[in-house]
Batch of 3 targets.
Target 1
Amino acid sequence: MIFVFLFLLGFISLGFQTLLLREFLVIFSDNELIIGIFLFNWMLTVGIASYIGEIFVKRIGNIKKTFEYLVFFTALIIPANIFLVGFLRRFFQKTPTEMLGLVSAFSFSFFAVFLICLVFGLWFVYCANMLNLSGRSVVLPISRLYAVEITGCVFGGFLTSILLVRYFSPLQISLIFSALIFLSLSVYFSKRYLLFLIFFVPLFYKSDSLEKLLISYQWKPFNVVETKDSIYGKITVLKNEDAVDFYENSSKVYSTVLSAKNEEITHLPLLLSYDCKNILLLGGGLHNIREILKYPVKKIVYVEQNPVLVELLKKHSDDRIMSLWENPRVKVISTDGRFFIKRTTDIYDCIILDVSPPLTGLANRYFTKEFFLEVKNILSEKGLFVFPLLSSENYMSDEQKYLTASVLKTVKSVFSYCEVIPASNNYFICSSEKHDISSKLIKRKIAEKNIELKYLTNFYVDYILRDDRSEKLDEWVNEKQKEVLYNTDFRPISYLYGLKLWLSFFGEKLFLKIDIYSAANTIFVFMISAYLFLILLFVKIKKRLYELVVVVVSGASIILALTMIFAFQSVYGYVYQKIGILLSVNLLGIGAGSFLSENFIPKNRNNIVAIKLTIIFMAIFSLILT
């Protein structure tokens, strides 16, 4: 019985952890920092619960009965925790799309996981003590119990990520976990728990209605039309009179209402180019296509990485927008933008990149030197490449200067010419040859082509291309040029500057006045030095040697696990779908190491040498990752 409940604990805990992590990535707009914050609060609470449970478990008279009630309570709070996250979101967010800072992230995740982690921590302690009190002639080592739990974790993480999240909603999955608990309780304790199982069946079938109510509550006062999961996140469709907005997680990715950005990002490069026939549009939506079709282009290839977004765009667009899908000059491809660029053999006269700024690892993939080189390879000799970055009207903070300077330095290492136009965004116009960017030229071409524009008026063109605005922007960016490094796939410096900018929105700092990359190096060197220093002390530490090793190795392992998760996001971009699998693989490695040490290291040997070698290996592996 004990092993069944240990396996069940692992299965449910990692499966439910995967569900909550996905919800947090939705709420915090794919910001990967929330993964580390979430795991910190999860492990801290489980550790505290285990410590408390070990103190009080021996004072309990009937431990088996207490364990039965604890597991029963767990089955009730698992689905309730899904609603708790929704209520906490409304508590911390004044509006559904409000950005939350680091302090809010810590507080939110702590309250969201506190109760469930408390019962998970007590669950393991009670199982271990029940086994010791079962009258077995041979006491099993704690590593065997962890092995059973880790086996359950691996199965739970894989099954949840591969199967459950594809076919069931978070509330339905939580009800499945509760049903497994009631089924186990009915087998090993009392048949009366089957009554709760019967009660949960109709609740499962009505869960869609409950989840719609919860989603409507979270997005109140907006009118939610539909929500749907994808490999990149959750797509939510909102409708307000004639306007339909599409959100991926908590960030707006498209609206049926035309914006100034739609005109700026399309007309500025097309008016500057000589003769654009083949256009590649990476992201941005259908309004960009409609503006491009005002020119005599031959072909527009629109690449949207999220196929679910394309599906919902087709479903909820009006007739005017729907006609764009059927235009013979427009080809829509649902695939990852970087994947497409690496494999296409076509050459384009203009490439327009319209994605989010590099505030996350997912977005940073489109601002690295490797990506810019891939773009250059498919750009014609006189072709233009344009993309936006966050701007401010008359002031640029240090965080924004560093971010803009790092992106500009990176793109200039690939393209011989790059000009930045300060408009509603800072537009980077990149090419292999210099272009005359003046308000006089732009206005003349608009008049010659007789293009109907709403935002890009003569007055506005004169304003954004004023010499003093361009000179001030150049001064701000050049101020930091010598201090920044190139942004690459495996040295995402712009992502780090993006995190600094994100934190500055809330008055928070990542590394005060220190250069961010130098600070990261300093921390890394300090960690490696600490490992080596601890190795030297091992021979003198006797009483707390093994506890110290557990702390050091556990801390290092979770840091390395997070590093691999961030690396996966930087390369592939869909950690939202694979987070459970990544955590399962990490635990699979821990379980394999535990099995090997238990079966192949002699029990009567001094293990200090093995411990030293383990820590040295981790330090070397850390260096290899850099």
Target 2
Amino acid sequence: MKKPPRRRSRCAVRGIVLYEEILPWTSRNLSWPTAWSRTAYPRLPLTAENAAAIPCRQVLGAYSVSFTRQDDTVLVRHLSNVLGLPYAAVRRNIRDNTEGAQAQHTIATDVRRSTVAYIQEHAGEFEGVYVVDRTEREYPFGTLACHVLGYTGTVTAEQLEAQEAAEQTEGSITYESGDVVGQAGVEAQYESLLQGVRGEQTVTVDAGGNVTGQVGEVPARAGTDIKLTLDVDIQRACEEGLEYAIGISKQFGYPEARNGACVCIDCTNGDVLGLASAPSFDPSVFIGGISNDAWSQLNSEESGNPLLNRVIYGQYMSASTIKPLSALAGLEYGIYSGTRTTNCTGYWTGDGEAYGKYCWLHSGHGTMTLEDGIVYSCDPVFYDIGHDFYYSKDNPEGLQEMFRRWGLGSTTGIDLPSEQEGRVPNAEWKEAYFSDYSDQDRAWNPGDMSNIVIGQGDLLVTPIQMVCAYMGLANGGKEYTPHVFLSALSRDGAGEDAYRYNETGSKERLTAEVEKEHLDLVHNGLKRMIYEESASLAAHFNSLPVTVAGKSGTGEKAGEDPYGWFITYAPYEDPKYVVAAVLEQGGFGGSSAVYAVRTVLGQIYDAPDTLSPSGEDHTR
């Protein structure tokens, strides 16, 4: 992510995210008695379902425009004493021409009223200093939806260079040094809508370049108001549920649990209703410019890289949440039928005694069908699938093909920046990726297949990819592109939608063609998993007024505690919502991530989970 250079003011007028710029005056030619300046119009707001607009507060700011007095030590010292700022800081702010030589240079913001009164009463002592009432954004909801909204900052040198190199098209925005632009989240994704069109002023200047008057003006135009798909109550539940789940993991012996993601999607259209990533960050630290120390902390491993949106950027082993897709692959290619069984003794030797693998339940599950394998997450059932795909003459990569059919290995197209594509490995990938290794070590082998078939090995997915895959399962194969943009509002003040996402409000991403009877088997297995795999797990869902289907997962990573997954869709009979959570080093999915998901479902159906967590469910 790009670090926004220090900015002395960034303001809000209304809505969730709205900015008002200082007037950045820029002299085109100081040798003439007139000069042109450009004025930036406020960025316009973002709103969400069930959300009151985040209000602004009035802030008092002192400004100096008389840069010819920047060496007036008496004035600078006087300002320093009155404002309670270091002498060097006041002088530096007066000298700062980032926003143009004729700009009002911000000296201080959020000045006490008593200080403002003193400056106004002693105006003769502060020649060239002006006090201006302004507004500045406030964040009464704190960190809520910070990874969706993102943040803004002064345009960087790299961005200006990229602009110079890029071909300018009609209607494109041309930035200048000092402009505030979106740097992450929706602020960056929809910069072209939120950013207004500059106006111009014609001003008179004296021989020293000081502004002496205004002789003409072309008004700026506002940007566009944006409405988001987020439901604030569900968004809050995602964040609180994730925090709750992390706390439970710590309580039951996983001290490294602190990072994770939780997301809820309307599977009938792809609307993102809630999206949370932990750790979160307070967007208010970017108001007025962020310090180097704060920036370093937000991007450090020690603090968990809070700026990362793990829903779209985090790439994880999928663990057992992949097993429904593995089952569909086995069914589709005739590798493992619905009537075939595997005898799980707790230790599988299908690739030979020397390459034996444990089931997560070392005591064994006994005789398992494919549907049972989904319900109880029996590893040997899926080891058999991976083994038989490896030795298949006709479809040795049928498993990978099925994963890709449901969108894995590709970005989902969500309208947020920095989405990662994950990875679906195969023989060709392995040979290229490990190019420095010996031919034997680079060769694809049965162990690779038995790893990815249970969501381990070199397979990588993002939470948003898995939510989309389960959206497809819930919809009979159809996946919609996930999106946070709902509509752009008209400028006539009526508050009506001028444009909806993709004009219709949704966009089909893909349709995974599979046999209905195969999907029915998977659906039934996912429902049974919630209510039959574990009595303690089922107890948390029995209190909901709807039937739920879902899958847990527990990923393993060398040298770290297990990664917990849980994904559900509901209602089972007519799905509307898909909810997923992953906790890094949070322990078993059935005793960690499940609590984040259950919190969200509790909010949706007004049925909070009243059971105390036990930490005993080792559902994989």
Target 3
Amino acid sequence: MANSKIKAQVIQKNKKKFKNIKIDAVTLDIVESALKNARFEMDATVFRTAMSPGIREQHDAFPLIADRNGKMVVGQFGSFISGFLNNYDGTVEEGDVFFTNDPYKVEGAISHANDWLIILPIFYNSRLVGWACHFGHMTDNGGKVPGSMPTDATTIFEEGLVTPPTKLYKQGVLQETVLEVMLNQVRLPTWNRSDLNAILAACRVAEKRVREICDRFGDDVYVSATQAALDRNKRAVGGLIMKAIGEAPVSFEDYVDDDGRGYGPYKIKCTMWREGKNVVLDWEGTDPQAVGSINFYLNENMLKMFWGIYMIMVFDPAILFNDGFYDLVDVRIPQGTLLKPNFPAALSCRTHALGRIFDTFAALLGQKSPEFLAGAGFSSSPHFMYSGTNSRGEWYQLYQIGFGGIPARPHDDGPDGHSMWPSFTNVPQEYLEAYFPLRIEKHETVADTGGAGVFRGGNALRVDYCFLEDGEISIHDDRWLTYPWGVNGGDPGQRSIKVMYRGGYETGKVEYHESKCDNIKVSKGDILAFITWGGGGYGNPIERDAEIVALEVTRGLVTVKGAKDNYGVICSEFGIVNWDATEELRNEIKETQPEQMPVFNKGPELEEILAKCKKETHLKAPKPPVFQPSSDVAVAAE
């Protein structure tokens, strides 16, 4: 634990140092597998005992088990612990359990205040052997709007409860006053209590399993095995870096369309290159932090994990995710930018920047090897929120994560209307209709919205919500302005749109809503069509098998017109191909195409997109970006 930045003081009654033991491959595999199973048991515990649909049904919660120094050995999002250790100025003792939801006090290990984080140190024979951590997204965290993610916020103080690292349990004793004060700030205290207990129970499971491994092998072997697991990962990822990352810099830039306050788009830029055995990710050129809430306070270790996941999944999925390779990645994020804002910048709409980072990684990693490229598709993490008081006088509040089109890949189509997040699932319609005053009129993919290509991008998802009680809604989404780009000749996917049918489909009263908005009043009988984006395509569309295009016409994934316009395929609605007409049309299209198809197809230039915005999207074009002034408190810059 020797680190000059660490403020936390770990108290170990047993001062004996751990022995450094050489771990054989069999023992290492057993320990790794046991920890992986414990991690999945953490998931199962949370999903079976939480109350909110965001966690229980959609799995918006993330566990990890770390070594004694706080490096993740198994998990999903990388370690949350280094930021805690560097900023918590107090003792860590056996029986302590810590709570926080303050991104700024853990160096961005959690990205907004709705993420409630539990940190549990694991002791064995009075020595620290590891950590169990888990965070989950709470449906409500207090603040100015139901759901606690105001799209127009300018400071984190508008986003509800913000608690620095605090002992929820002190040497095994629950600090009840702390818990009750926290729960008093939120709109759904029963849900929050249940979800927090579920997260804590998951950490207890991990603690029990780690101790069982120590019982079997001894704590010296366990600690050495965690280091061996990290070292093995470092060697494997180091090999990938040498093979896949060149010394010549490659850059890519993309945009978050707007900030929820009428300004945008905001640029995110990254340049990547290799220096010796290390890779450099330099975010110079990213826009300064926004006045609005689209800032993403990005923890460098979390970014390293995001990049590592992409590397591993593209080049060698057999490698176990952990923090072992972090020393090989040099992350450079300028302070005061969209990805490292100064306190107290608002963070509640940060998922749009998060989605754009994943798209950017895909673009960077494929530039040296275009055959490994995938299109854009992680364009956002759409949120829908609906709340109010029903006819029985009871408060209801829904938080739901939406899905979109997954990009086409080098060897296959992108899935339609799917989640990019590992383990995320949809909320069953029966659940929504049973527990909330709404009816799902449509839940379907939208034909022709996936980018055309040899491999088609996934189609957008359309969900139509019919409201059965008066209330209000919030919408969080992106890619309504810029396009999810295609690659290697593939076309971009279609953009997202939100349409309100006041009083139902037949009244003719239609409204188009921004992709980021709050406090939209709805009445009984109103219908919202929540339509996300399509994934970018891969490869020249006229090289796609015409029979597959025709088959997708019969399945409702491509229209007859889309088959002709996008793929050069002439067919009937029954999937019967006119081969002579198809060949003639494809030859005509080929004559108009460049000899070398573009690696990236982002659609029209930004200036043209802005000029045609009102006509094509029914929404006003955003004004040029407004950046947060360099002051202690964010202010509007109008």
